[in-house]
Amino acid sequence: MAQLNGSKKIKTAVFISGTGSNLKSLIKFSKLKKSPISIDIILSNNSKSKGLIFCKIYKIKKKVFNFNKKLSTEKKILNELKKNKIKLICLAGFMKILSNQFIKNFNGKILNIHPSLLPKYKGLNTHERAIDNKEKYSGCTVHYVTAKLDSGKIIKQKIVKINKSDTPQLLKKKILAQEHKLYPEAILKIFSL
Ligand code: GRF
């Protein structure tokens, strides 16, 4: 894949709801010469998302949308994305489910990171469920977003060993550390194909 300079990079939006540690790792990655993406806008459904601090630190445009009226909000978001020439969306701890209509508008251009080895443990509380089921391994997955929750084509995964002494919090921490490597790797993979 050819090296991309700042202006040629694929304009990307990151959607968050919480801490934004994956957002931070994506921003750092986007600044590398080898990154095919630039991060041009950060969206959140929650004005209190801790991750919004990174908009300030890295001087990236931020937009907060109220998802109570989902369909009209999504229309506003689509306008905003169009205005900013966004070509890729990375969901990173975004806790709202996007409508089929929205997904169709960005068909094949929305990625998500999930803290389990999909197709196992779709949805919430993945670490608790993996430990309760006495799994030996868990991990994380980057996949395409489709209308069916956590079910789109898998791009890349990382496996994490579960130790007997692991609590859900400990496992979450171990998996998050791998997530921060996985998301950039998955992006490199799809754009170097
Ligand atoms: C991550 O575990 C991600 O896999 C899941 O939500 C969490 C977000 O963490 N979808 P952060 O906000 O990126 O720190």
Return the domain count.
2
Q: What do the pLDDT scores average to?
A: 95
Query: How would you sum up the global shape?
Result: globular
Biggest sheet strand line-up: 3-2-1-4-5-6-7
Determine the structural class based on helices, strands and strand pairing: alpha/beta
Approximate strand percentage: 15-25%
Radius of gyration: 16 Å
Number of helical regions: 6
> How far apart are the termini?
8 Å
Classify the fold: give the CATH topology of the largest domain: Rossmann fold
* Largest sheet features: 7 strands, mixed
CATH class of the largest domain: Alpha Beta
Helix content: 25-40%
- The CATH superfamily of the largest domain bears the name Formyl transferase, N-terminal domain
Give the total of beta strands: 7
The CATH architecture classification of the largest domain is 3-Layer(aba) Sandwich
Series of secondary-structure elements, N-terminal to C-terminal: EHEHEHEHEHEEH
Q: Which parts are unreliable, with pLDDT below 50 for 5 consecutive residues or more?
A: none
Report the bound ligands by name, code or SMILES: 5-O-phosphono-beta-D-ribofuranosylamine
Structure characterization notes:
This protein has 193 residues and is an alpha/beta fold. It folds into two domains: 9-107, Rossmann fold (3-Layer(aba) Sandwich); 113-193, Rossmann fold (3-Layer(aba) Sandwich), CATH 3.40.50. Helices cover 35% and strands 23% of the residues. It contains six helices and seven strands. The chain has helices at residues 21-30, 53-58, 70-83, 100-105, 126-132, 168-191, and strands spanning 10-16, 37-44, 61-64, 88-91, 110-114, 137-144, 154-161. Strands 3-2-1-4-5-6-7 form a seven-stranded mixed β-sheet, covered by helices on one side. β1, α1 and β2 (37-44) form a beta-alpha-beta unit. α1 (21-30) runs parallel beside α6. The radius of gyration is 16 Å and the shape is globular. The termini are close together. 36% of the residues are buried. The model has no long low-confidence stretch (mean pLDDT 95). Bound molecules: 5-O-phosphono-beta-D-ribofuranosylamine.
